[in-house]
Amino acid sequence: MEFFGLPAELVGNLGPSALVGICILAIVTGRLMPRSTVENAQAIQADRIAEARAEAEAWRTAYEKVTVANRTLNDQAQPSVDAGARLAELLRRAGAVELPEGSPE
């Protein structure tokens, strides 16, 4: 087992001043932090995750609404499209309309 890169046997043989020095070094390098700092960081991270999930849910809801609206629009427009195609076919058969070159028949 190691303690900040030092073998545990060596750390066990160090005096109190060396151990205090190691603790100060750990605090300065950021390896040892107060519990409140860690808890604050975890709370901030949890808040960000919750916000991201809420935003994702809002986008999902918007997507579902748009999908339903598009489906409804498509369902409502389809009879008009079909009626237009039937009318065009009737006019074509009656000879009332000549199709321009390259148009679908």
Structure described in brief:
With 105 residues, the protein is mainly α.
Q: How would you summarize the topology of this molecule?
A:
Elements: E1 2-3, E2 6-7, H1 8-12, H2 16-29, H3 35-94
Antiparallel strand pairs: 1-2
Description:
This protein is mainly alpha-helical. Helices cover 75% and strands 4% of the residues. The chain has helices at 8-12, 16-29, 35-94; strands at 2-3, 6-7. It is rod-shaped. 0% of the residues are buried. The mean pLDDT is 84.
- Report how far apart the termini are: 82 Å
Q: Provide the low-confidence segments as ranges.
A: none
Helix share, percent = over 70%
Order of helices and strands: EEHHH
Relative strand content: under 5%
User: What characterizes the major β-sheet?
Assistant: 2 strands, antiparallel
Radius of gyration: 37 Å
Counting DSSP H or I runs of 4 or more residues, the number of helices is 3
Summing up helix and strand content along with how strands pair, one would put the structural category as mainly alpha
Biggest sheet strand order reads 1-2
User: Could you give the count of β-strands?
Assistant: 2
Q: What gross morphology would you assign?
A: rod-shaped
Overall mean pLDDT stands at: 84
